[in-house]
Amino acid sequence: xxxxxxxxxxxxxxxxxxxxxxxxxxxxxxxxxxxxxxxxxxxxxxxxxxxxxxxxxxxxxxxxxxxxxxxxxxxxxxxxxxxxxxxxxxxxxxxxxxxxxxxxxxxxxxxxxxxxxxxxxxxxxxxxxxxxxxxxxxxxxxxxxx
Length: 146
Description:
Blueprint: H1 23-28, H2 31-42, H3 47-57, H4 62-78, H5 87-98, H6 103-112, H7 133-142
């Protein structure tokens, strides 16, 4: 080894993005997982759902988790579950996240939340009218007939 050989140090490198990083740490850096964790941090009523999800799935699967978020949100909207997270807070959170235009976030919100909202004629379909402008525009793209 020569004296000018130095280890490859990158002070600006993010340790959770290294190829040799632990899988959970590396996965947490992805926007879809961050979305789930931010939702739970913002709306504590999702904590039990999150803990059960992580236990059952052995980690965070954003699309699977958001199917449950959709169900809880519609139940809250219909007033069927007093303990369900407040639907208004959930929609505000998702509106703010969607306005960021982050591909990993958008994919989860569109395919695992908006697409699972009730269809016309189903109980709770009126929640579609409560979507903010960003969510409403995306909903209209993926489900133009409502």
